[in-house]
Amino acid sequence: MSQSLSYSTAGGVVINDAKEFLVLIRSIIRDGQSVQEFRLPKGHIDPGESEEEAAVREVGEESGYWSVEIIQDLGVGHSSYVFNKKHYERDERYYLMRLTDSERLAPRPDSPEEALFKPQWMRPEEAIHCLSYRSEQDFAKRAFAVMQSWSENES
Hints:
Helices cover 26% and strands 43% of the residues. The protein is an alpha+beta fold. A hairpin with a 2-residue loop joins strand 2 (21-30) and strand 3 (33-39). Helix 2 (124-130) packs antiparallel against helix 3 (134-154). The protein is globular, with a radius of gyration of 16 Å.
């Protein structure tokens, strides 16, 4: 394998008024088997775009929920993986977001794979358990911890 390819992504852990998490679900073929994949919305940062702008855009493109506001930065994670015999290094930044309007408009997926996503609202504990990738589970846990601190501050 030659050198690593590096890129950055941004996404969101979106909550609704019921304090549920937005999860994207799709059926894919992996290693010859049909599996359900559970993901958080995220994607590449376009040239000239801020991480915040990219995160909001990706939520809308992948889910159809365009009316979101950023509540808090959940930080950056790093992952590396091999795909098609190429090594990739990825920085992922996530934001805790609040749905400001429950109207769902048409998603604008960037790829045929993204078009397979179906949005689903899940209890935070269920979402954390179901998410397919550890890095996304970690960001969902961070978001849930922030939400729990709100409850403690209200007491």
